[in-house]
């Protein structure tokens, strides 16, 4: 596969070389699309070098505000904080929502989103024009869809926080003692093999932008049960997964109990093949094509030549 012949800088609050998380995974995965990816944070950003060498900078959403307005940048919309704040009631997320509104006013910015619903939310609320929707690409050679789970009773999840279902899981473990529910909880390089041994993956979230770990589980061809948030709101969402109501999952214990029970039963009665959606929509090849269009628009906006790395 031919990568785009550019050097780009990813700019975010944390260094993805030493930090784990969805945004940091996105930053590392830019290497699937570009020949060279460098990383900057508020501690080591270099405005003069970016100006001098005309390096495209891909910022995590509201982080575009950290750059002088004369520097053209790409803002990547990972999620819509106003909606997240409404769900989580977190003061920090409310601050983030205000920052995103202010960021939407920044000139010299080209916007790219990781999901259709996010692009529409920014457009409706802030009047932002999103140039391209680029689903998080998955390395489908690492996440190869080859499972080694005969007889497995392991159900993986990513319930790290309250809004990702952490408080729901103890009740489910008690209700279905024949199954083992465990968090993914491993190093990034260990994720494919961890998933390979599982029987299924569940993600009980009250809010998502576009969860990378869900995309990885689908790429591994694991049967998946998701709440109807994030990517599940897109018109072209994956169909070969079980989708349940997030609102009811967090408010109605009987509903969640029954939905999970039906899903667990289906593991022996039906086939799931969510990898097909990943291969069609979220591979490096698809991302390169869409990033190529976005970069063409960026260089035109910036008035820079589309020079290679």
Explained architecture:
- Helix 8 (212-219) packs across helix 11.
- Strand 7, helix 6 and strand 8 form a beta-alpha-beta unit.
- The protein is an alpha/beta fold.
- The protein contains twelve helices and eleven strands.
- The mean pLDDT is 95.
- Strands 2-1-3-4-5-6 form a six-stranded parallel sheet, sandwiched between helices. The protein has a five-stranded parallel sheet with strand order 8-7-9-10-11, with helices on both faces.
CATH topology of the largest domain: Rossmann fold
Helix run count: 12
Low-pLDDT regions = none
* Count of domain modules: 2
Offer a few descriptive terms:
single chain, 309 residues, alpha/beta, Rossmann fold, 2 domains, six-stranded parallel beta sheet, five-stranded parallel beta sheet, 12 helices, 36% helix, 17% strand, globular
Write the layout of secondary structure elements.
Elements: E1 4-11, H1 22-29, E2 34-40, H2 47-53, E3 57-60, E4 73-77, H3 81-88, H4 91-103, E5 109-113, H5 116-126, E6 130-133, E7 154-157, H6 169-175, E8 180-183, H7 191-196, E9 200-203, H8 212-219, E10 224-227, E11 242-244, H9 246-249, H10 253-266, H11 275-281, H12 284-302
Parallel strand pairs: 1-2, 1-3, 3-4, 4-5, 5-6, 7-8, 7-9, 9-10, 10-11
